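TA notes, week 10

Several of you asked for a full example with nothing omitted. So below is the full record: structure tokens for the whole chain, then the designed sequence directly under it. When grading your own attempts, check the secondary structure regions first.
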């Protein structure tokens, strides 16, 4: 009897069809009949073979914090335009402006290598829960618990990365209920094959970001290369296209409303396992502060950037990032309120609590754990403002941020590798160096100064228990506009941190050497680094407490659910099952799930961000749709909606049909769905995808990218002469 019950609870349908970012392993726990009824035509084992620990899902790759997918056995990867932006930018100059014009490699030899571009292909997932938990010494306090767990994670990663070209991660699930070692091959030679003009890839810009209706061709095509023997290798002319074992062929017939789709990818972070009170804190304090602090930064960047052409270019990418976070925070606030998400979480917790009380002693530790988590939350609230500001310091003015990074690096590097903060371990140093180098293109002095002044003013306004000592020491305790401006000027006048060559020298220097430079900005950064480091140590105790308490509570929540519960996003590979469908954004409005090329033309105003490039407009206005017309729409579909459960990091995710063919590329969510990070609401849970037929229309009718289309099997005929695509 018991056994049957257990089986029943494992092979079950989720509560809501679209809800859940399922791990590959969990896909096998879902009821196959339910999956079939949804529209999955492949056997779940094809998606994921438990014996091999891989499957079709592994055709989904991680592209530097974004997702992407192999679309050919010859290493072609599709992702978002905004995810490939770095490579496009790298090869752009005023003389050859690929950002504006777009780029098509006519032949393989024309493909453009991306300096920092990497593609990670998942190779294995191993449950390491027992090893991680066994590492915690008997009687460990919370800090010791965290340190032991983190150390074990680092050991597992270092061991795993002994294989060449390997990138590993120990991911924490359900707040510490389980841990998985993710082992990926990192391909280091990644080249740009195709990018649309920015006015297509980013059509609608900030105005349309997080919005529907949408008409954005947010896609780009890369190719991963390997050494001739198939192993990962840095860029070399001798390299050959990577032979992808799993890939998603293009579904040239596209999708229609009601169709089943799966979105696969690497969602970054969600907060559904938080307690209602913890969510309430983010609603009441965190997001409003994001709006406030980042809103101010945006104003500064825009104001100063508008005064200077070079400055405008320098701040462009920072501004784009800040706008995205700022608007996202607004969406979180609107969605939390509108969806009554905190109230719903309170109600859900009350149900679990009542159930647990009825069940008796078994769940008493879970209830106690919840109480303790709530008490922890109280203590965090008290230092919120200070910690928010310290954390924001790394995203605002670049000078102090780089200086404090150099300080932290110097302090950490003298420790044995496994005792350092994860960000400063040997495995990260090349990336860190690269980042400090690339910052150069984002620097713009007037903005630097204003951002630092704004930071100082905020820090000086903090209460007595929340002081930032580095600010008090270098700028005094109270804001005096003139005095602060003079100090900021002096700091930037006397610093070498903004000088690329000097900064790269600092990268290798000890703390004593850095101090001996008597560089005023560096000195401020070094003091800031000490406070950041102390904050992290306090954070360790807190994280240790959470790792002790949250799993207890989560186990009760999961037992109460009685069916598989998808864990919060944590940057690992997930799949979500969905349907193409529209929604009602608000009272009195119905949104259809597809947009078209005619809509692109209709939105064109000739003013940023709605300027359709001439060569696109010419074909669109002539209605040269080719085979990419949707009969029912009588037009080329551009974007479509589905009710997939996605978040940040899912950018570039392949959206595939029940046969495992690519029908689109995910790139955003609708405004009403931004707060799905806290809870899935089927009424507004919609993700935004580029329709594969728009991709093909661009490549075919606009660009005539012959070689690429042949390689994708879309255009008939042998590969172009001299090519072995
Ligand atoms: N636009 C997001 C991203 O950049 C995707 C999302 O948040 O839905 O990852």
């Amino acid at each position: 009897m018991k056994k049957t019950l257990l089986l029943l609870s494992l092979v079950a349908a989720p509560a809501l069809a679209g809800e859940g970012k399922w791990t590959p392993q969990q896909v096998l726990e879902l009821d196959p009949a339910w999956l079939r009824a949804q529209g999955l035509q492949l056997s779940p084992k094809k998606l994921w073979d438990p014996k091999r620990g891989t499957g079709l899902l592994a055709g989904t790759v991680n592209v530097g914090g974004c997702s992407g997918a192999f679309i050919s056995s010859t290493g072609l990867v599709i992702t978002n335009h905004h995810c490939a932006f770095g490579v496009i930018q790298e090869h752009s100059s005023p003389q050859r402006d690929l950002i504006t014009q777009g780029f098509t490699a006519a032949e393989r030899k024309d493909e453009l290598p991306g300096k920092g571009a990497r593609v990670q292909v998942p190779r294995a997932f191993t449950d390491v829960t027992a090893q991680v938990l066994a590492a915690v010494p008997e009687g460990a306090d919370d800090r010791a618990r965290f340190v032991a767990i983190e150390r074990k994670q680092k050991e597992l990663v270092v061991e795993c990365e002994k294989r060449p070209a390997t990138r590993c991660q120990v991911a924490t699930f359900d707040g510490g209920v389980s841990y998985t070692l993710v082992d990926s091959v990192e391909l280091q030679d990644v080249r740009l094959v195709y990018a649309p003009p920015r006015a297509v890839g980013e059509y609608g810009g900030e105005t349309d970001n997080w919005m529907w209706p949408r008409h954005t061709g947010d896609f780009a095509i890369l190719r991963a290369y390997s050494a001739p023997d198939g192993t990962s290798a840095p860029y070399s002319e001798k390299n050959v296209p990577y032979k992808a074992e799993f890939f998603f062929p293009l579904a040239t017939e596209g999708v229609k409303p009601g169709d089943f789709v799966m979105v696969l990818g690497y969602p970054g972070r969600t907060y559904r396992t938080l307690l209602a009170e913890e969510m309430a804190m983010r609603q009441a304090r965190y997001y409003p502060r994001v709006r406030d602090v980042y809103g101010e930064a945006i104003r500064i960047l825009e104001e100063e950037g508008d005064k200077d052409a070079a400055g405008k270019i320098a701040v462009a990418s920072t501004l784009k990032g800040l706008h995205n976070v700022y608007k996202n925070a607004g969406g979180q606030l609107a969605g939390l309120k509108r969806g009554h998400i905190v109230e719903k979480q309170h109600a859900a917790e009350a149900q679990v609590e009542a159930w647990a009380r009825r069940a008796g002693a078994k769940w008493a530790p879970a209830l106690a754990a919840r109480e303790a988590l709530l008490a922890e939350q109280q203590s965090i609230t008290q230092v919120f403002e200070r910690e928010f500001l310290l954390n924001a310091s790394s995203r605002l003015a670049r000078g102090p941020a780089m200086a404090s990074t150099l300080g932290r690096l110097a302090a950490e590097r003298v420790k044995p590798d496994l005792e350092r903060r994860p960000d400063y371990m040997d495995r990260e140093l090349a990336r860190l160096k690269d980042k400090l180098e690339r910052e150069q293109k984002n620097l713009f002095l007037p903005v630097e100064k204003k951002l630092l002044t704004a930071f100082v003013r905020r820090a000086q306004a903090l209460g007595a228990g929340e002081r930032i000592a580095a600010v008090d020491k270098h700028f005094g305790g109270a804001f005096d506009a003139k005095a602060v401006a003079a100090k900021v000027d002096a700091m930037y006048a006397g610093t070498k941190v903004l000088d690329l060559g000097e900064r790269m020298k600092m990268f290798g220097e000890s703390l004593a050497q850095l101090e001996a430079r008597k560089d005023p900005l560096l000195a401020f950064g070094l003091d800031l680094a000490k406070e950041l480091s102390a904050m992290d140590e306090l954070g360790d105790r807190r994280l240790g407490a959470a790792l002790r308490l949250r799993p207890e509570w989560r186990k009760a929540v999961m037992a109460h659910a009685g069916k598989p519960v998808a864990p919060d996003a944590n940057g690992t590979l997930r799949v979500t099952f969905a349907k193409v469908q529209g929604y009602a954004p608000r009272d009195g409005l119905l949104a259809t799930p597809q947009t078209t090329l005619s809509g692109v033309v209709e939105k064109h105003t000739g003013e940023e961000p709605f300027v359709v490039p001439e060569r696109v407009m010419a074909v669109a206005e002539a209605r040269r749709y080719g085979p990419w017309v949707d009969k029912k729409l009588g037009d080329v579909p551009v974007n479509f909606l589905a009710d997939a459960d996605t978040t940040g990091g899912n950018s570039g995710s392949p959206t595939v049909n029940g046969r495992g063919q690519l029908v689109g590329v995910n790139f955003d969510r609708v405004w009403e769905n931004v707060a799905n990070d806290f809870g899935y609401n089927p009424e507004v849970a919609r993700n935004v995808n580029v329709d594969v037929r728009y991709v093909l229309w661009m490549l075919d009718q606009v660009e005539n990218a012959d070689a690429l289309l042949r390689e994708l099997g879309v255009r008939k005929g042998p590969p172009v002469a001299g090519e072995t695509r």
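Residues 357-551 form one domain. Use that as a sanity check on your answer.
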